[in-house]
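Quick look at the format.
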Amino acid sequence: MRRRLYYCDQHSFPLPPGHRFPAAKYRLLREALSASGVFDLCEAPPAHPALIELAHDPAYVRAFMEGRLEAAVMRRIGFPWSPGLVARTLASVGGTLAAAADAFLFGFGGNLAGGTHHAFYSEGSGFCIFNDLAVAVHVLRCQGRAGRAAIVDLDVHQGDGTAAIFENDPAVLTTSMHGRNNFPFRKRSSRIDVALPDGTGDEEYLAALDELLSRVKEFAPEVVFYQSGVDGLATDRLGRLALTPAGLRERDRRVFQICRAGSIPLVITLGGGYSEPIALTVEAHAGTFLTAAEEFR
């Protein structure tokens, strides 16, 4: 059975020359996965602002939609405001919502964007405007589909916004396995934080992951959201870890196996990836979804 994946790279937004955000990777990833013949690629539907407001301050949501956020707020996000950015942001959240619906139908669903874990309740940060993970948890809860959710965040940067949003919510297990010395430099407290030293390689990483996943299993979630950043690669210019492509694939496989063995719906989103050349990032992201297809046959 061919699986659906959702993309939002049809929405472009202007960036200044030399900007660090790897916007091209989203189109290149969609093209690579389309060529694989494994997936049906679907345009992500825009999320309705009312759903986003389940996880975010309505005043913040409206100010962003209307282009009224202060310049200092946009600088912390890292993007200049534009109508294209609004369209892309809504589709990014909508892709995660659509992927969550697919997860309950088919075992897993995937969004070729999202994973915007630096977005807080009333502000954005680090290329993240709205926290699609938090929005999706709240939507599933309102639909009565999942009361207990686990967020497995394996981006090299801590999921500080997600941790803060669910700080007082015992029904959401927030986890983050990240670089100890990497952004954000003021960490927030997830339920489970695993801070890795610079230069951590495959063996040490996978041992720490096994321990983390055992605690996720003990929590008995009714859905797992997987923020699958690939910036832990040794080739990543912002990562500081030393994972190989094979180690990254094994990381993905272990996450998928625990979900499949427990019949836990799995929602896969992107995260960071800043390797040069960009083809290394695209290959790693594609590997995550291709591994999922193998595991959930």
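Next, a different chain entirely:
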Amino acid sequence: MKYDPIKEILGKVVRISPFLRKLFYKVLGLMFLREWHVKRALHAVVTNHPIRSMFDAGTGFGQYSYYCARHFPDLNIRAVDVKTQQINDCSAFFSGAGISNVVFAVEDLTLPLHSNEFDLILSVDVMEHIPDDVTVFRNFYQALRNGGFLLVNTPSTLGGSDVHSPGDKSFVEEHVRAGYDETEIRIKLESAGFLIEQLRFTYGRWGTIAWRLGIKIPMLSLNKSLAFFFLLPLYYLITLPFTLLFMYLDYRADNKTGTGLLVTAHKS
């Protein structure tokens, strides 16, 4: 399934008005389990360490920068993406909303553009799109100040991207890798200089069911026909209570395995 065309359609819709973009952020925060896990990890790092600046590496629609700007108003944020349209949309929305502690820019993460600038780098579902991930991890290390933190959220090889065997194709065609296993991401981050603080599996048994009910089935249906958009309210009326319950169970669980990985590392 190609995800970018759907993202482009969503981008056009939320570009219509600030209200629609704020509503879109709320829907993302509710329906995407990874946001639950990432926001918890963000809160733990920012509230327990002297974090003054953040680098949102691959900001997309800007929902994490929006969350951090609202909840941590003293935090200075630089949010970047390779897609000019998304950066322009985010910049216009944040400016219109009077949010002044976020700066947006078009950047390529494989280029060493920053050195000793940030206390926190956030990378959510970005690394699976980048072939030269080792270079990016090294650039992240260079961009952090001593004692700074890196949060990486990515699919795992234990079914991430809906890949369960060598012959399976990624659910998202834009992915250059299905995900990471625990050993691979440890080795790549440590070779860049990072010290791993925590590696947590997300989307365990219950989270995987929730993802299929709440995200996969609707996305596949929309990818086949946009007419399904008009059936979504009825679909979610039936499935949403079960989806949210399963998401909560995953959020509270200590998953021994899962289709997602959330890694917290720091620069000594």
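The mean pLDDT is 91.

See the schema section for token definitions.
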